[in-house]
Design a protein that fits this description.
seven-stranded parallel beta sheet, about 45% helix
């Protein structure tokens, strides 16, 4: 079978590498990744997951030329295009080259291309719209995207909801009764409110002296006049430096999952956060903010808690869970079962392959 060529990503990271590694194994063919490398970790993940990776060269025309050479070299069965950091010219260039070589295109919509639609320039909107129109298949990852795609008059029969899923580990995680940590693990974006996490942490630290907090992600967060160094300063001034740890970008979060029992996500957009799913699968109990789609992931009171987006509500939820270890343990087991039954990447990819066979690879 011919390989799949993937382009448009800003870099290759663990979750993307796992996705294409597993897809490659299911299909019995190679997946070629052609991307930028803003993290300088793409080579590492390509090697770890057995993927062939090419770095995008500097210059728009060099980019399109290299893309063309890869098509001629590998003759892929189809091309998957993300609209991440490449320019609109390059994005359209990818499309035109694919069409000129009679190779079907699959477009992945996973975030900003549709969420920030009203902020895009006319040229960017045209580029994204062309990709959606000229593709054989449009995969979208967020529930709000369906309405956006309908407004853009994209044919319903080529739109497929492919939400985040994760590889399910065979080994059962240790019981949460052996862990006494509360974890925040996400990039520090304003809509995820890491400042609320810090406030919750300072309150819980006073109530539960043995509990530690870890706040991990991008360290360059700004929310109005609040910066991460200021948050760290606040923690230090309260004498909680040994109880509340701030980490930068975490490439291998497994050790954090093994040592924490509660996962916090005070975000305005919870569905379908990848780290949230990973944490649930590793046996952490999620506490998330009320938001569209949260109830699809979590059944409140059974496999996690959905609360108002403020420090008081999150503090109350965490305090309750820490005060009721039996409830915490049962919710942790339920959370893992939820991911195994509903968000298993292997099962999702097997379904996606059937979609490819019906809508992308099927010859007229």
């Amino acid at each position: 079978m011919k390989p799949i060529l993937v382009c448009g990503l800003e870099h290759l990271i663990a979750k993307t590498a796992r996705h294409y590694h597993m897809l490659s194994n299911i299909l019995g063919t190679d997946v070629i990744i052609y991307s930028r490398d803003i993290s300088n970790l793409s080579t590492k993940f390509a090697i770890n997951y057995g993927l062939t990776w090419y770095k995008v060269p500097i210059g728009k025309y060099a980019d399109i030329k290299t893309f063309t050479l890869l098509i001629r070299k590998y003759k892929p069965i189809h091309i998957e295009i993300y609209h991440d950091t490449q320019s609109d010219l390059v994005h359209v260039g990818y499309l035109l080259v694919a069409i000129a070589h009679h190779i079907p295109v699959v477009v992945f919509c996973r975030g900003g291309e549709l969420y920030y639609w009203d902020r895009h320039t006319i040229r960017k909107k045209i580029g994204i719209w062309l990709g959606l129109k000229l593709s054989k298949l449009v995969l979208y990852k967020e529930i709000f995207m369906l309405q956006k795609l309908k407004k853009l008059n994209i044919k319903p029969d080529k739109i497929v909801f492919f939400y985040n899923r994760i590889p399910v580990l065979q080994q059962e995680p240790p019981d949460v009764s052996h862990r006494l940590g509360v974890l925040y693990l996400n990039t520090f974006k304003p809509f995820r409110h890491p400042d609320i996490v810090v406030e919750v942490a300072t309150r819980i630290a006073k109530q539960f002296p043995s509990v530690c907090f870890t706040i991990a992600g991008d360290r360059y967060f700004k929310n109005g006049h609040i910066s991460l160094p200021q948050l760290e300063k606040t923690v230090n001034e309260k004498g909680l430096v040994n109880r509340i740890s701030f980490l930068g970008w975490v490439t291998e979060p497994e050790v954090l999952y093994r040592t924490h029992c509660i996962f916090l996500l005070p975000a305005e957009h919870v569905f379908l956060n990848y780290s949230l799913l990973e944490a649930m699968e590793r046996g952490l109990v999620p506490v998330v903010a009320t938001s569209p789609g949260a109830e699809i992931i979590i059944e409140h009171g059974k496999d996690g808690m959905i609360v108002d987006l403020d420090a008081d509500a999150f503090t109350t939820a965490v305090s309750y869970l820490l005060s009721h270890p039996n409830v915490l343990s049962q919710m942790a087991k339920n959370a893992r079962e939820k991911v195994k039954s509903c968000f298993d990447l292997r099962l999702g990819l097997q379904g996606l392959v059937r979609v490819y066979q019906q809508k992308v690879w099927k010859k007229k």
